[in-house]
Design brief:
There is one protein chain. The chain is built from nine helices and 18 strands. The protein is an alpha/beta fold. It has two domains: 6-48 and 176-214 and 305-360, FAD/NAD(P)-binding domain; 94-152 and 215-303, D-Amino Acid Oxidase, Chain A, domain 2, CATH 3.30.9.10. The strands form three sheets. Strands 6-7-5-12-13-14-11-15 form an eight-stranded mixed β-sheet. Strands 9-2-1-10-17-16-18 form a seven-stranded mixed β-sheet, covered by helices on one side. Strands 3-8-4 form a three-stranded antiparallel β-sheet. Helix 1 (14-25) runs parallel beside helix 8 (328-345) and helix 3 packs across helix 8. The two termini are 26 Å apart.
């Protein structure tokens, strides 16, 4: 930019922190307004497993999300390298397993992934594993499954370490942080005297008043400490009623999830959901029987009607970024780069690359 800009970011979840961090690095004077406190309690990102699995997610989402996920696997290491605090990141692939009685469901799942690879041949090819191959890939699962799928190149990061590191970056860059300060785009007139140059609305479900198509999709996630379990990569269990993922973090901490319920109810997790998550994890590895339950969390993911993200221009210098659904960490770098390109050039070719809906209201 030819001169310093003043930007206001509404919301300090994943998208808000990431955008404020990047704008500050570009020389903007940045204010962040967050309705809650600095711990991210109101953010879906605090509860997420933060898996970066474009091919695995292609079974339930569209190709644009998969393309954004490919972009993220390259961009996240670059973004993390800008931070001063360490953030756990790995790309050891994803493992898909199933019990013998669910073989037909696994076959259907594999066909969906194969179709995605036909459409996007740049994705690393999935690999079928027999029992010896699974044992070599993930020794902790030796003798537990007869077949598996391995998706090379996929990854994950630690969501809470990232949120903390981004907060530290904002403080270091002297971003002005307004906690417990709910604001909306209508509170500003960007580009007019005495007002910021840009306003970016990243409030998730907090933006429902202005973006009425938003809805919440409830997810329930368990965090465990399981010293007897060692997994080298995220593992997904195929099941017709309660498929789960197990995302191993550092120090034998595991994030297990996630249910999807069409409600914005944020009451504590149900007994049924918790039992299903824990029982499924136990069938993957019996060492989870002696694990300690650290947390059982619920959160509502901000979701649009088509389950795809979008950017809306409320004016020449006011953007809303929303609808990241269950794919926040998978697609946030792509959403970030689209917005930064728009700020720089008032146009964006990346949006077309990702088939990202860019509305003008």
């Amino acid at each position: 930019m030819s001169s310093p800009q003043h930007s206001v970011v509404l919301g300090a979840g994943l998208m808000g922190r990431l955008l404020a961090h990047s704008l500050a690095r570009q020389g903007h004077r940045v204010d962040v307004h967050e309705a809650q406190g600095p711990d991210g309690q109101g953010a879906a990102a605090r509860v997420a497993a933060a898996m970066l699995a474009p091919l695995a997610e292609s079974a339930i989402t569209e190709l644009p999300v998969v393309r954004m996920g490919q972009h993220a696997l390259t961009r996240w290491p670059e973004l993390i390298a800008q931070l001063h605090q360490p953030v756990f990141f790995q790309h050891n692939g994803t493992l898909i397993v199933w019990h013998r009685q669910d073989a037909s469901e696994a076959q259907r799942f594999e066909q969906l992934l194969a179709r995605t690879q036909t459409q996007l041949p740049s994705l690393p090819a999935l690999q079928g594993l027999d029992a010896p191959g699974l044992s070599a890939c993930e020794p902790a699962l030796e003798g537990r499954f007869q077949r598996a799928l391995y998706l090379p190149g996929e990854g994950q990061l630690d969501n809470r370490q990232l949120l903390s590191a981004l907060l530290e970056s904002l403080q270091t860059q002297e971003v002005t942080l307004h906690w417990h300060s709910p604001q909306s785009p209508s509170d500003f007139a960007p580009g007019t005297p005495g007002q910021p140059d840009w306003v970016f609305d990243c409030r998730g479900l907090g933006a429902r008043t202005e973006w009425t198509q938003l809805r919440g999709v409830r997810g329930e996630v368990v965090r465990l400490h399981a010293p007897e379990v060692t997994l080298q990569r995220p593992t997904r269990l195929i099941h017709p009623r309660y498929p789960i993922y197990i995302a191993p973090k550092e120090d034998h901490v595991f994030v297990i999830g996630a249910t999807e319920i069409e409600t914005e109810d944020l009451s504590p997790a149900s007994v049924r959901s918790t039992l299903e998550l824990l029982s499924a994890a136990y069938t993957v590895h019996s060492g989870f029987a002696e694990a300690r339950i650290l947390e059982v969390n619920t959160q509502a993911r901000p979701t649009l009607a088509n389950n795809l993200p979008a950017v809306r221009c409320l004016g020449p210098r006011c953007l809303q970024i929303n609808g990241l659904y269950r794919h926040g960490f998978l697609i946030a770098p792509a959403m970030l780069d689209v917005v930064l390109e728009w700020v720089q050039h008032q146009t964006t070719e990346l949006a077309a690359t990702f088939a990202l809906k860019f509305e003008h209201v």
